[in-house]
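Quick one:
INPUT:
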């Protein structure tokens, strides 16, 4: 066996403290600020060129981004509250500095001089020209063409938005920590093995089981036979993070004010200028067209679901009120697929244990893109080094290479943090270190992390993935692969985050299709009973009361694949209408006709109204309890902290 060569660059280390995070953030910012000071002091407008202004600016930005990502990453993954708080503060330091340098008039006049020098720009390669254009536009978006008083007001608005976003994110993380206590009777219908995993209560909750907002919402909504139980869970979930309601409102009002200050009619027009769609009119037309096509299909689907619900209630001697509620959909969708396609999602999940499925996914990516992944074993590594390489013991670390036909070059590092943990978001992909070219021409190699919240394995059963989670994991891994294979000169263009947000989802959406190809499903699958004698014994004990304990096929059976693929696009219109409602809401709050409209808008009522108009299911609003509908939009962190404001439609492209 040929020994794997050593990578040209070691993975980043995760040895830090709250104090060092903040000190490192300040040091990185000071270094970048000094680099820009040197540009301003050594170059004048007459002598400004790409090489003496934009290139050193790019090197400074590259160096900052190579450290800023990780310093801001701990807030999402650390179990140490002090690290999370320091990381959040560090992110604010970087946000404040980002705004500071993009408002420097001494740097702007130099960039503008290069931008208007046609001889200079005509000689640039495409990426350099793109960098120049984006940096110049960054200055314009930060008010460099405004009078000083208005520019200062814009700075105050943007500073306040940064503060609100940080608080919003902290609240969102804490919001996942809640949940509801139910009696076993209220949870009837949930599989016994899943009930056994729930936390047992004591004291006032003696005899009850705790269902967590972080990991048990889907379990309750899909399996609990009691409509009242499902309703309680859905309503409570939609009422999380009440403290984010005024923050969300203030952010969208300030965004609108800032956009109008810059001469745009609204925030959507400002944001879309740099996206693929370009204008709000394009997005509005797309969404209206989708609604016109999807709603009739959704209404037909709804009639099928109503029939299934009526039959189920009548079989239990219960009265049906003719309504089909938001909290009914997951439960009766499962029943309908089982009835029409003999599709048992729990049986399907048994074929996709997390660990073996991830291994098979990486093998598929190896075949598709000519890659090689090698997990870094920690067996022979000293404990202190082992701990320094990852931020948590659950994390797996892989080296990524091109295969021999691609030159066998090193690509970067892939981190998988897949098990549920407090305060951790999921599913999501985080860049840790961007790729770029250093001043001497050597490459800075990327590192990227994939986060999920799958349940941990137990002695009797591994972590199992329903097919929907297989698709989600493949999608997120696609973002990670995009990051690793990306090769750019400038860090700001590296990976998915370097593209327009309404394009960034496209590669992963395309890759999701592999999860519906029969041959690939075979490759991805392995029944968990085949993983170990202990799992086989546990599985046999589980099915003993149902008949045969003969071990199942190792890979997913052809009949199950056939049923799964037949059901791929069946009854999907309703789920698409649910997503479409969020898109309409996104555009409604970001393109008000006047500033007064957004100032007076009841954002919770707007969300719930648009959701009802697009998604024809009953909820508290149709029961005359509008005030109890909650504020589900406060769980969409990307509307505030990410890049999806006036961009959520990208999931439909």
């Amino acid at each position: 066996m040929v020994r794997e060569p050593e990578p040209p660059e070691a993975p980043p280390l995760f040895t830090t403290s709250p104090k060092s995070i903040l000190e490192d953030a300040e040091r990185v910012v000071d270094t970048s600020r000094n680099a820009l000071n040197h540009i301003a002091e050594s170059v004048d407008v007459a002598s400004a060129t790409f090489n003496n202004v934009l290139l050193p600016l790019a090197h400074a930005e590259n160096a900052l981004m190579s450290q800023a990502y990780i310093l801001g990453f701990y807030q999402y993954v650390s179990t140490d509250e002090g690290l999370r708080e320091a990381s959040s503060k560090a992110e604010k330091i970087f946000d404040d500095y980002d705004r500071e340098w993009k408002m420097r008039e001494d740097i702007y006049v130099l960039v503008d001089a290069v931008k208007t020098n046609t001889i200079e720009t005509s000689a640039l390669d495409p990426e350099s020209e793109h960098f120049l254009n984006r940096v110049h536009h960054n200055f314009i978006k930060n008010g460099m063409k405004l009078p000083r008083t208005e520019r200062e007001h814009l700075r105050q608005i943007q500073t306040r938005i940064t503060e609100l976003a940080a608080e919003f994110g902290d609240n969102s993380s804490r919001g996942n920590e809640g949940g509801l206590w139910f009696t076993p009777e209220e949870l009837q219908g949930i599989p016994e093995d899943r009930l056994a995993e729930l936390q047992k209560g004591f004291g006032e909750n003696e005899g009850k089981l705790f269902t967590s907002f972080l990991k048990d919402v889907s379990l309750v909504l899909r399996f609990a036979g009691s409509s009242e139980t499902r309703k309680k869970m859905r309503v409570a979930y939609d009422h999380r993070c009440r403290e984010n309601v005024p923050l969300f409102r203030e952010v969208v009002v300030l965004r609108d004010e800032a956009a109008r200050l810059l001469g745009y009619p609204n925030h959507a027009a400002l944001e879309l200028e740099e996206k693929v769609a370009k204008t709000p009119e394009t997005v509005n037309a797309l969404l209206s067209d989708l609604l016109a096509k999807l709603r009739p299909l959704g209404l037909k689907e709804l009639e099928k679901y109503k029939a299934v619900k009526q039959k189920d209630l009548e079989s239990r001697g219960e009265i049906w009120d003719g309504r089909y509620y938001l909290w009914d959909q997951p439960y009766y969708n499962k029943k309908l697929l089982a009835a029409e396609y003999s599709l048992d999602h729990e049986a399907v999940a048994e074929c996709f244990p997390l660990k073996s499925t991830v291994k098979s996914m990486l093998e598929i990516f190896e075949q598709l893109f000519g890659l090689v992944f090698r997990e870094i074993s920690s067996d022979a590594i000293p404990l202190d080094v082992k701990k320094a390489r990852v931020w948590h013991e659950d994390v797996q670390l892989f080296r990524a290479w091109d295969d021999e036909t691609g030159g066998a070059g090193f690509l970067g590092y892939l981190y998988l943090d897949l098990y549920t943990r407090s305060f951790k978001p999921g599913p999501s992909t985080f860049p840790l270190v961007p790729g770029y070219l250093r001043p001497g021409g050597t490459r800075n190699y990327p590192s990227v992390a994939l986060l999920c919240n799958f349940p941990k394995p137990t002695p009797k059963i591994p972590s199992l993935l329903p097919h929907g989670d297989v698709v989600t994991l493949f999608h997120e891994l696609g973002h990670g692969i995009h990051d690793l294979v990306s090769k750019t000169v400038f860090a700001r263009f590296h990976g998915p985050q370097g593209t327009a947000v309404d394009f960034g989802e496209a590669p992963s959406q395309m890759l999701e299709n592999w999860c519906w190809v029969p041959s690939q499903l075979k490759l991805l699958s392995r029944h968990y009973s085949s993983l170990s004698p202990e799992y086989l014994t546990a599985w046999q004990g589980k099915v003993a009361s149902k008949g045969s304990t003969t071990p199942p096929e190792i890979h997913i059976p052809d009949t199950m694949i056939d049923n799964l693929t037949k059901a791929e696009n069946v009854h999907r219109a309703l789920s698409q209408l649910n997503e479409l409602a969020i898109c309409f809401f996104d555009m409604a709050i970001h393109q008000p006709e006047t500033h007064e409209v957004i100032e007076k808008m009841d954002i919770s009522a707007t969300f719930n109204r648009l959701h009802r108009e697009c998604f024809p299911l009953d909820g508290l609003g149709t029961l005359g309890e509008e005030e109890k509908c909650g504020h589900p939009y406060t769980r969409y962190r990307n509307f505030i902290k990410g890049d999806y404001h006036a961009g959520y439609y990208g999931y439909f492209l």
